[in-house]
Every structure is written in structure tokens, then in C-alpha cells.
Amino acid sequence: MKGETILQNEYINKCKEEREKLEKKLSRPVTFHVTTFGCQMNARDSEKLSGILEAAGYVKKEEEDADVVILNTCTVRENANQKVYGRLGYLKTKKEKNPEMKIMLCGCMMQEPSVIEKIMESYRFVDLVFGTFNLYRFAELLYKSQTHKGLLIEIEKEDQTIVEDLPTDRKYKFKSGVNIMFGCNNFCSYCIVPYVRGREKSRTSEDIIDEVKKLAEDGVMEVMLLGQNVNSYGKGLDEDISFAELLRKVCDVPGIERVRFMTSHPKDLSDELIDVMAENEKICRHLHLPLQSGSDEILKRMNRHYTKEDYLKLVEKIRAKVPGIAITTDIIVGFPGETEEDFLETMDVCEKVRFDSAFTFIYSKRTGTPAASYEDQVPEDVIKDRFDRLLALVQRCGRERAEEWTNETLPVLFEDINRQDENLVTGRLSNNSVVHVKGDESLIGKILPVRLTECRGFYYMGEIA
Ligand code: 5AD
Ligand code: SF4
After folding, report:
1. Which residue ranges have their beta carbon within 6 Å of ligand 1?
2. Nearest listed ligand to the Cα of residue 330
3. Of 50, 58, 60, whose CA–CA distance to 22 is shortest?
4. Residues 6+ apart with CB under 8 A from 174
5. For residue range 272-305, what is the model confidence (pLDDT) as tens digits?
6. How far does residue 359's CA lie from ligand 2's centre (Å)?
7. 152-166, 168-182, 310-324, 369-383: least confidently modelled range
8. Mean pLDDT of 186-214
């Protein structure tokens, strides 16, 4: 075990002692709740926070009014920030009834100085604030907060330390995210991520494979390799390794049946990666390939380093080599200076590619990013109109693409009992589509062939074949 891991484990023990004292005082178990905003990276971070709290003896509570409440925040768009302030208002009323309650804030939003100022001014009932660079020290910060009254703020600017071998509380027994790299060097002009997650840093392949092996031994059959830009994995490491090579190694771990990854930047997607996907059935037939815009002019101003033509050619190449692959995307509407012609280029790419699904976002101005100072912001009503047109198109394409698989028989990994109908079990195809099948809990964690009997827009009803 490495030094920092030993230290944090010592803090877990100290947290346990403090939690026991509180438990005696309250004569009941001490509970926690973690609310996650944003992306898969944050979801994985929340599993780490929960893992440490559970190791210290805290009991997970479904409702948000627990003794320790953590909001793991996102700041990629302004509405994510607004949601957090909304939750804080609610938590304040809960804390008035439970004076032992600790409210903690972490994640990307906390790396913004203006947010910290606002918390210090208007949200002083918060107990602990930490950021993205010191999350690995959560056990230590939790201990500090347990033994301290009042607001504690612990933010670091940038930290190259990677500590991954601490307890985690996986949401699913049979699948898990695995961080392969942190941060981003791309500086797309609209995006705040490089500022709040720092410069790109990859984990060594040895550490990653060790973690995947341990997960497989613990029953995990599907891993999702996580990074803001997985295609540039390996840069800056002493070893000479590409993302494609890492994928091969992960597929070779005994017990691993499915491998996914998020997110790919079109400019860095190599032929080698396409070949590895083509030759290895364990790699899921799904590629999330953010387009952002179809206009060359806008792409240039977004600092994306590819053209509409490059993107279309790339999709063509991938589909030729990996038949049946689902391609999904992110698109921003209303980037500063976007004209109707620019927008029609985006619509044209969607018509040509026919994405299996697309996340569409309204451009959100993020202070500190280059695009925030671009003067020609698009009026709200124009954006709304474009957004609606785009949404209608991507939904139609998604439905049509999904329809094409009806009556096929494909392997499904079963994940959960359906929330609306407990006679149904929900699973996913390799291409990430959702399938519901009549069945019970015994199916969960199994991969079985399913005939897709009916397509209902974005999901299927199926029967085990
Ligand atoms: N406004 C709107 N959408 C954004 N995204 C990133 N930054 C912004 C922003 N300022 C979107 C991009 C990215 C996804 C995760 O969020 O489409 O791919
Ligand atoms: Fe943001 Fe661009 Fe990095 Fe993605 S690649 S996190 S959009 S800067």
C-alpha cells in the first residue's frame, strides 16, 4: 500500500471513532446521503465518497435528510449550479431540525472562486467544502469536519496525486467505472472542465489493470473506462502505451465480458482504436463521439480541431469497420455567433449520420472561458427555436435507428428491477440500448440472449431467447 493510502486508511479509523461517539449520543445509527450531479466521473467519485463513509460505519440513507449530506456538484452548465443552490435551501430547513447534520459540498463547482465567495457570504450553514483535486483526502477532511464546528473550506488549485485504492461503494455488483485519466488539455472555448479538473494526467496501465483484476475477482463483468478524453490516454506517462493498447489489456482480464469507455474526442480517435474495437467483441458496440457543431466556422471558434467533413469521414470509417455500432453524440445549440446557416450545417450532419441518440444542450456562458467574452451571443428565442428543431430531428433519427433492431436476438446484461413495473427486469445491449424483459431478480448480473420483440421509441421490450 502506498503512503497516502495508508494515511487515509488511518483517518477512516479515526472517523469511525468519532462516528461511534455520535452514535452513542444520538442512540441511533449515524446516516449519510450523497447526491450526484453531472457526468460519469462524478458518479464514480460519489462511489468513492460513499465507500469511505461506509468503511467508517455510516449507514446509507435513501432520503437526502441524513446526518452527513454531500452534494457532489457539476458546473458544466449554469443550470447545474442553480440546482445546487436550490438543494441547499432545502437542506437548511432540515439542518434546523437536526443540529448534528453536516452539509458537505464537493465537485467541479467548488473549483470556481466565485462559488466559494457566494458560499462564504450566503450559505454559512454548510460544514465542509472541498474540490476535485483533494477528493482522495476525503477521509481526512471528514475527520476534520467531525471535530470542528462551523464552515471548513479546503480547496486546492491543482494536484498531480492519484490515489485510487481506497474503499468504494459500487452501485452495481457486476459493473463498475474505472478512472483511467483525469483532467483535460483541450480547452474547447466554451468549456469549464479544464479549469476545474486541471491538466490531463493518466494512471499507469499497471494500476488500471490491477484495479480491473480486483473488480473482476469481486464479480464485475462490465467496466466503463472513464476520462474526459480517453483517446489521448498515455500521454505524459513513462511507459509507451496508447488507449487502444490499454483496451486490449483490459479485455484480456479474466472475467471481464464487456468494456465500455467515455468520452472520445473526434480529433484524437485513431485507426488503431477502430481496429481494436473491430477485432474484439468484448468492446461494446457503442461510441460516444461529441460533435458539438456541424459548422466549420463554429468548430474553429470552439477550438475543436476538426471539420464537418473530418467528422463525417470518421463516422463512415468506424461504421465500415465496426458494423452495428451505435454512435451517440453531444451537440451545443446557440454558441456565440451561430447563424442560421451554421445551425443548418449541424442539422445536416445529424441527417447524414443519423445518431442513435444525441444529448442536445443550449449553450451556457461559463465565466473564465474564452467564449464567455465573445460578443455575438445568440438571442434566447432564436436558440429555443433551433433547439426544438434539432431535438425533433435527433429524436426521429434515434427512433428509426432503434426500430431497425426489432426482432433481432442480442445479448443483454440485466441490471435492475424496473422502477415502474416490478415484473420487469431492465438490461442493456452492447450498444447501450435499454431492454425490458419479464423476469425477476435472479436475472440481475447475467448476460443472456434476448429477442427484441417490440421497439418503443428509445427502448425495447424483449423475451429471453
Ligand atoms: N454550454 C453548453 N454545453 C456545454 N457542454 C460543455 N460545456 C458547455 C457549455 N458551456 C456540453 C458539451 C460536452 C458535454 C459534456 O457538455 O456538449 O460534450
Ligand atoms: Fe470540455 Fe472539450 Fe475537454 Fe470535453 S474535450 S472536457 S468539451 S474542454
Report:
1. 76-77, 190-191, 290, 292, 330, 332, 361, 363-364, 366
2. 1
3. 58
4. 219, 220, 221, 222, 413, 415, 444, 445
5. 999 999 999 999 999 999 999 999 999 999 999 9
6. 15
7. 152-166
8. 96
Cα–Cα distances (Å) from 312 to 67, 156, 215, 345, in that order, read: 51, 41, 37, 12
Cα separation, 459 vs 399, whole angstroms: 9
Quote the radius of gyration of the chain (alpha carbons, Å).
Answer: 23
Distance CA 184, CA 172 (A): 27
Q: Is 135 exposed, middle or buried (0-12, 13-18, 19+ CB in 10 A)?
A: buried
The full DSSP string for 163-198 is ---S----S-SSEEEEE-EE------TT--HHHHH-
Ligand 2 centroid to residue 346 C-alpha, Å: 19
Residue 330 CB neighbour total at 10 angstroms: 14
On the question of a cis peptide bond just before residue 5, with omega within 30 degrees of 0, the verdict is no
Amino acid at position 165, single letter: D
Q: 38: which DSSP letter?
A: S
Question: Which regions of 166-305 does DSSP assign to beta strands (E)?
Answer: 175-179, 181-182, 201-202, 222-226, 258-262, 286-288
Atom of ligand 1 nearest to the CA of 292: 17
**pTM, to two decimals:** 0.94
Strands in 74-127 per DSSP E: 102-107
- 211: cell is 484495479
Q: Closest Cα partner for 356 from 405, 296, 412?
A: 405
Q: Among the residues of 367-445, which ranges form H helices?
A: 380-403
Choose which residue among 289, 332, 333 to substitute to test ligand 1 binding: the one with the highest number of ligand atoms within 8 A of its C-beta: 332
| Residue among 37, 42, 74, 76 whose CB has most ligand 1 atoms within 8 A, to mutate | 76
